[in-house]
Amino acid sequence: MSELLEVRGLRIEAPKKDEPAVQIVKGVDFDVKAGEVVALIGESGSGKTTISLGALAYTKPGLEFSGGSIKLKGEDVLTMEPSEVRNLRGNRVAYLAQSAAATFNPALTINEQVTESAVLHGVMTQDEADARAIELYHALELPDPDRIGFRYPHQVSGGQLQRLMAAMALVGRPDLLVLDEPTTALDVTTQIEVLKAFKKVIKEEGSAAIYVTHDLAVVAQVADHIVVLYSGEVQEQGSVDQIINHAQHPYTKRLMAAAHAGPKPGMGDKLTDKHDQDMDNIQVKNMTAGYGEIVDGKPAITVLRDINMSVKNGHVVGVIGESGCGKSTLARVIAGLLPPAQGDIIMDGHTLKGLYKNRSKKDLQKIQFVYQMADTALNPKQLISEIIGRPVEMFQNLSGQKNREKVAEILRLVELPVEFAERYPSELSGGQKQRVNLARSMAAMPEIMLCDEVTSALDSIVASNVVKLLKRLRDLTGVSFMFITHDLSTVAAFADEIVVLYAGRIVEQGPVDEVLSPPFHPYTRLLISSVPEMRIGWLEETMQKREMAVGIARGVEITDVGCPFYNRCPIAISGTCERVTAPTYELASGHFISCHHTAEEIEAIEQAPQQVLHGFEKVPQVEEVIPIPIVGNLPV
Amino acid sequence: MTDKTANTEDMSVYDELPDAPPKKKLKLTWVGKLGVTIVLFWVLMVFIGPYVAPFHEADIIAYDSFMPVWSTSEGEGLHVLGTDYIERDILSRVLWGARTTIGISFLATAFAYLIGVTLGIGAAVAGGWTDMVFSRVNDAILSLPSIMLGLLIVVALGTSIPILILTASVIYAASVYRIARALGQDIMVMDFVEAARVRGEGMWYIITREVLPNAIMPLATDFGLRLVFVVLFISSLSFLGLGIQPPMADWGSMVRQNLDGLGYGSYAAVWPALAIASFTISINLIVDDISASEGGSLARKMIS
Known about the structure:
The complex is a heterodimer of chains A (636) and B (304). Chain A is an alpha/beta fold and 636 residues long. In chain A, 35% of the residues lie in helices and 23% in strands. Chain A has 23 helices and 22 strands. Chain A has an 8-stranded mixed beta sheet, with helices on both faces. Chain A has a 6-stranded mixed beta sheet with strand order 6-7-8-3-9-10, sandwiched between helices. In chain A, strands 2-1-4-5 form a 4-stranded antiparallel beta sheet, with helices on one face. Chain B has 304 residues and is mainly α. In chain B, strands 1-2 form a two-stranded antiparallel ribbon. The longest helix of chain B is centred in the middle third of the chain and has 37 residues. Chains A and B meet through helix 10, helix 14, helix 16, helix 17 and helix 18 of A and helix 1, helix 7 and helix 8 of B.
């Protein structure tokens, strides 16, 4: 195979006026062959996105190319004239950004945007481009491919939009596709669906691709060749088999260690006397909550239904589920940010008031909410000393020198240098900010910390360090955690108990090892099987599985009656599941499951994995179209 | 993750990479620097103008009216910029006028900010009915053309400098309110404000420590622009004869009084007009430059 793209000695730097330039990319070499997918992996700050943008002869503002060459079919893109660059970007190299939602203009239909660049560059006429787009919609297995283009971006789901973005990039038949973390922000179940479509379409189109990501497990599924980057330098490169199965470089090994091994029972620490106190710290009883005006105990939009759960002193309860299932809402209700419509939240023997304004200072102190994004959770105009010092002052009545000492103590607790007290949040890295975010909550000396996806926005190495820190905090202070995430592997390694939420209902809960071992609730099973494994060929294997066929193809429907998982469940009992709310029963001590099947039935199905019940053999492969009326005129 | 990481502990060489670039220091281009120079010059004149001016603003000393640039009147001296319609020295009056025009405008803008920011941020933090009532009253004021409203107030209450300042500040407080409220609302939905509320912080702490520090930069830049509008407003009122009263020199009234001179080929009306233009455009240049160096985010916030 010929080399499609040749990168030789590429250097990119950020020039400074008075000081020497900051080197961002320090001499990188790699090749992309025609029809090959090359993955650039590394943490944020490793220069992987900067390098990939180089293929488009583009740098972010403030950076410039300072050496080396990037040759596309023998032509150096760095020395091209502006008009050639324009042609390059539109026709020959296409870029797929991380967030489809930010890529699409909400005011134009999808088709207009998908076909725009090809028509604008004169590659095709509008009619040809339309036909080509529909062909791609078919290839990407989008629902209703002939008409989906007439929709607006908000009328399709997140995973569909991500695939439509691929169509946008591919419509002009580019030589090279640059994909920048295209599945990072997605749920595991959506990620699978997008990965599958990407892999298929790249293969069918025969176009080469640069795939930028920090997720090794994803890379193992899609890439042919892997380039491992750290701090703007190539650490190791080789075929996917070489890197995944026989990594040589210590940094690659470290990345593999931090990457998830897949959620399995027994990954977490065993409960020790240190934090095992068999007393409920917080209890949620028959709670229903949602948004909008509450009429007769029913909110306008119900998000959570009939929630019963508890967090014991010193325990870590992981709450998992896809986005939109009500995980964050649950934490917000407990924190008093959203009053429940029905039910009670009981802490240390007394019922808490619904809204934080009505709670006592003592209650406010005991429950601390930790936000996902440290960037918005920390006031950019306050020094770290004030961010942490303020709760110390409020809840421990310490001021002046004593306050400063306490802040220093808390900084040491979260493993940050004491000097950071005099810095602003913008002067810290992402992981450091997240530590400050945790430190602020710790400063209140809470009994329970509600952590809302605190590791989701972080790189795998940074995230695993943060989890290590959380474990340390738990052991040192005995604080309980409610740990909300869509990342099962983190939960498996950190939590003592798991609550599985689906469409606002708890479908399964219990000790972590019990929930992660069979028998599973069908939804838990779907979630666990969707977590990518660092194994070549995993994607193909998984797509063969029965629970995947239905579960991945269809989306969440929030229902008032019956089991909400009915439409995605491979073992649903038609006539019962969609009409009657599933009974909750105890499988083992403390392990509850909500399903119409008995434990024996579920177990029997596990034993015979290929036998599909209740006429689901003919699973429709087409996704259900979201019933939204299409605005505008459709060609008949 | 538990046992595997144990044998990677020694690889501390691979530290967490900082992903946020160090904060950029504000650097002005030569355009911005030119703006700063001109504005500083006029600010200096506010303080020392009357002392460096060759004549008093009210002195009728010249030999003739509408004398050309660089002419001398016997026994009195050189009129660098010529004389006006009643034989006063233009340069002296422009220098004296800096104090009146910029001084009054600055005071009026400052008052407008005091009123507008207090009410605007207050409305954003309080929300609900308070916000509703304040905002609708504000909409009503905004819907009236400012110069008409100004004329009405000045005619009804008479012309004096305090009235002028009060009028300008009330009229411009309405648009300041809009910006302050919009900025405040943007900040109020941030997680750190919610964190402060759940902590049980009072409204005073939230306004002064959480919201204001984050609004101060866009507000400060807007202050510059708002000052420009007030200068133009006061000058317009003076031009119509309802602003600063003679014999006090002020750029707006100087333009009006010397307008007839244009017919005789005199530049008497041009110099104060240039003064207004140089001051206002310079402030705009600075604001544009700051906005550009922040990636234009400021400009977008200030479109009201």
